[in-house]
Structures are given as structure tokens and as C-alpha cells.
Amino acid sequence: QVQLVESGGGLVQTGGSLRLSCAASARTFSRCAMGWFRQAPGNEREFVAAISRSGYITYYADSVKGRFTISRDNAKNTVYLQMNSLKPEDTAVYYCAGRNTGDSNYYTVRLVDYDSWGQGIQVTVSS
């Protein structure tokens, strides 16, 4: 497992942008597939985006496809979520998650597959 710390959240108007960062504590970060999830009040935690440990494979929820971009910098032990054209329905607590894997192309959309989680960060989009 790795310790994960999110940053970059906050309040933004509809149509605005934010970039979330998730810094990992361990040098094993480069062996982890990473994902972003979010949870709005009263809702279950849902998948947002995933990236393989190599960074070559990404996958998005339909609700954010074309607006959000996940990326990673293994030299900095950091994964990012660039969020553009934000909508009020994007308001949620965002969590990054990691899964140690030996497969450089592995990624997963399933919450239960991840073994490391950040504490979450609030993103609020005002209308």
C-alpha cells in the first residue's frame, strides 16, 4: 500500500476548470495502477477515471469523458485529474486510489480492486 494525499480542490463556477493532484508517499507508485473516484452527498462512491501504471492506458466514466483527463508523472509519484467544463453535478468529494500490480497495462474501474486510498478532497461547482 501507498499513502495518497489529494490537493487542488475548491470552489469553481460552472464551466470552469480545476486540476486535482494526488501525491504518493512510496517509490512503489510506479508499480500502481491509479484511479479517481467521487462521492456526492447521499450517493455511493463512483468511478471517474483510471490510468495504467505505464500511463499509456486511460479509461473514463461516460459522465466525464471529453471533459476530464487523467495523467501521471512517475518521477514525481503523482497522478493528476484535469477537470474542464465543470458542471454542478460534478460537485463531490474526490478520492484517488491505487492498486499495486505487476501488469503495466492493468487498470480497473472497480472500487473494490484498489488497496490504497486518499482522504478525499472537496470539489464544489456553483451554478
Set out the fold topology:
Layout: E1 4-7, E2 10-13, E3 18-24, E4 32-39, E5 46-51, E6 58-60, E7 68-73, E8 78-83, E9 92-100, E10 116-117, E11 121-126
Description:
- This protein has 127 residues and is mostly beta strands.
- 0% of the residues lie in helices and 48% in strands.
- The protein starts with a strand and ends with a strand.
- The chain contains no helices and eleven strands.
- Strands 2, 4, 5, 6, 9, 10 and 11 form a seven-stranded mixed sheet that branches.
Quickly describe the structure.
By secondary structure, the chain is an all-beta fold. The protein is built from no helices and eleven strands. The strands form two sheets. Strands 2, 4, 5, 6, 9, 10 and 11 form a seven-stranded mixed beta sheet that branches.
**DSSP strand content:** over 45%
Query: Sheet bearing the most strands, described?
Result: 7 strands, mixed
Q: What structural category arises from helix and sheet content? A: mainly beta
Helix content: under 10%
Alpha-carbon Rg, integer: 13 Å
Q: What oligomeric arrangement do these chains adopt?
A: single chain
Number of helices: 0
Query: What is the 3D form?
Result: globular
Mean pLDDT: 96
Report the end-to-end length measured between terminal Cα atoms.
Answer: 38 Å
H/E element string?
EEEEEEEEEEE
Low-confidence stretches: none
Number of strands: 11
